[in-house]
Structures are given as structure tokens and as C-alpha cells.
Amino acid sequence: MSDESRPTPAQTPVAAVIPAAGRGVRLGPGAPKALRALNGTPMLIHAIRALAASRHVSLVVVVAPPDGAAEVKSLLDAHALPDRTDFLVVPGGESRQESVRLGLDALPPQYGIVLVHDAARPLVPVDTVDAVIEAVRDGAPAVVPVLPLADTVKEVEPAAVAGDPEAVLATPERARLRAVQTPQGFDRETLVRAHETVTENVTDDASMVEQLGPTVVAVPGHEEAFKVTRPLDLVLAEAVLARRRLNDGF
Ligand SMILES: Nc1ccn([C@@H]2O[C@H](COP(=O)(O)OP(=O)(O)OP(=O)(O)O)[C@@H](O)[C@H]2O)c(=O)n1
Ligand SMILES: C[C@](O)(CO)[C@H](O)COP(=O)(O)O
């Protein structure tokens, strides 16, 4: 592409990839986590609406459970979603990393900025989504929303058997630690290169970029962008939705 025809950062189209192919083992038995209901609506639909609430996001690629793409397509058809957003559904893989890569493979060429957002973080506020996009548009190759930690953290020698006592090795300085959330935002070329280069299994995309070298930028995250991981998180998510409904006055 010549420099004249290349879009400026403010014009670069933004796509979101939503990995939703996990089982949700820590949540307990049942349907794949992303398809479980929060106040009657699948978690995945909440997550899609949260990303599509940003006027900058024009495509959402949903990475469905490997044998669940048809079910996810039906869900999308059955729920109201913004008209200005396009949707694609692709089957996912064995790990989160593989699922994200399969989502990236499906992206049309014009999308120069990519957000990766866990379906398991269904309640992220639109201001957090937009803050991540803005930081990428300002030139950061990779951006993560983060929160300071509420607890003091200990480094331990992991026990051979879960639940056994463990020796404490160190207490990292809490002021320098952050808990990382999604959506994580990327210059597309940087993210694709990270997925092509890093072969070890990691839990988030930004850590792959860290391994390549470019500086990852952290912006303030939000308490409501928490990940639904364990059963108590479902209770919290439904309480947040109930409070939002009260605040919205219906
Ligand atoms: N093979 C996988 C594994 C995870 N994910 C997605 O990655 C996000 C974050 O993963 P996590 O919360 O750890 O979900 P699960 O892997 O489903 O949870 P668990 O480890 O409890 O099974 C979720 O939206 C999940 O659907 C995915 O798309 N493909
Ligand atoms: C990407 C992520 O949401 C960052 O917090 C998270 O690492 C993915 O899930 P996991 O629970 O760590 O497997």
C-alpha cells in the first residue's frame, strides 16, 4: 500500500477477536462457559455487545467452541446486535492461544488494529474498550488494561500435591504489580508476528509481544471487566447487571 492510500491511525479500521472456545472447567460442569446465561442472556452475547458498543469496532470475530460454530451463529441471529457491526464466527482450538490465532486468520486485510477480548469478561465498560483503542491509535504496538492488586502477593515453591503447605520464597513489591484484563489492543502486524514467533503456551497475547521486544503499554482497566472464572464470579456478574438495570431505570 502506498503512503497516500494508507489510512491514518484515526481511520484504521478496528476488529475485535473474541475467544469463546473454552470449556470453563473452573466454573464447574455444564455448557461451554461462554454459552452459559447471565440474567437469561448468554455470557458471549454480553461480551459481544460490550465490544460492539464502541463506535470504533466495525467487525467482531467470534471464536466458537470447536463443534459449536453453528450454535453460536444461531445465537447471534437470535439476539439484537448493532447494525453497524459485522460479525464472523469461526471454530476455535485446544488452547486460548490457538483460538486467537484462528480468529486472526479469519480477519479481512483492511483491519489494521485488533482487539482480543475474552468472552469470559462480559461486562467490560465501553470507556475501557475505547481507552485501549486510543492508546493503539496513539502509536503503542500493544496495549493492556490493568488494575492494581488488592492483595499482597507471595511467591511460593509450588507443592507437589495441590492443597499441601508451600514454602514462601518472596514477597514482590505490590506497587509494581498489576492484574491484566482484556480487551488487549494491538497493531495487527505486531500481533500476527507474535503468534507466528512464540510457540510456548502463554495465557495472554500481550506477553507474546513482550517476548518479541516492543514495549507493551498499560492503561487503567476497570473492576467490572473482571473474568468470570469460578462460580462466585457468576453471582458478582449478575449483581453488576442488576445494578446497571436499576441505574438505567428499567
Ligand atoms: N481453547 C480455548 C480456551 C479458552 N478460550 C477462551 O479464552 C478466554 C479466557 O479463558 P478462561 O477464562 O481461562 O476460559 P476457560 O479456558 O474456558 O476456563 P478454564 O480454564 O476454567 O477451563 C475465554 O473467553 C475462553 O472461552 C478459547 O477461546 N479457547
Ligand atoms: C488474557 C487474560 O484474560 C488476562 O488476564 C487471561 O490470562 C486468560 O485466562 P486465564 O484464566 O489466565 O487462563
Total beta strand runs: 12
- What is the CATH-assigned architecture? Alpha-Beta Complex
Rg on CA atoms, Å = 19 Å
Which percent bin holds the helix content? 25-40%
Q: What is CATH's topology name?
A: Spore Coat Polysaccharide Biosynthesis Protein SpsA, Chain A
Task: List the secondary-structure elements in sequence, H or E.
Answer: EEEHEHEHEHEEEEEHHEH
Low-confidence stretches: none
What binds here, in terms of ligands, is:
cytidine-5'-triphosphate, the ligand C[C@](O)(CO)[C@H](O)COP(=O)(O)O
CATH superfamily: Spore Coat Polysaccharide Biosynthesis Protein SpsA, Chain A
- CATH C-level class: Alpha Beta
Q: Any idea how many domains?
A: 1
Query: What does the largest sheet look like?
Result: 8 strands, mixed
Question: What shape does the CA trace take?
Answer: globular
Number of helices: 7
Q: Could you give the distance between the termini?
A: 49 Å
Taking all residues together, what is the mean pLDDT? 95
Strand proportion, as a percent range, falls in 15-25%
What class do helices, strands and sheet pairing give? alpha/beta
